[in-house]
Amino acid sequence: MKNIISIILGILMFLKLMELLYGAIFLDKPLNPIT
């Protein structure tokens, strides 16, 4: 059960990273959301 939770968290973090990279490259947004 713990492995499933770890895998789901890993996938969510990966998708969030891809979203940040996509936004930075294609939408010309800075990677830092604060600035």
- What percentage of residues falls in helices of 4 or more residues? over 70%
**Helix count?**
1
What's the alpha carbon Rg, rounded to whole Å? 13 Å
End-to-end separation: 39 Å
Question: Topology as H/E string?
Answer: H
Largest sheet: none
Mean pLDDT: 81
Q: What would you call the shape?
A: rod-shaped
Q: What is the strand content?
A: under 5%
Classify the secondary structure makeup into a structural class.
mainly alpha
Strand segment tally: 0
Uncertain stretches:
none
Topology:
Layout: H1 2-26
Description:
The structure is a single chain. With 35 residues, this protein is mainly alpha-helical. 71% of the residues lie in helices and 0% in strands. The N and C termini lie far apart (39 Å). The mean pLDDT is 81. This is DoxX family protein. It comes from Staphylococcus aureus.
Short characterization:
By secondary structure, the protein is mainly α. The protein is 71% helix and 0% strand.
Core attributes:
single chain, mainly alpha, 1 helix, rod-shaped, 71% helix, 35 residues
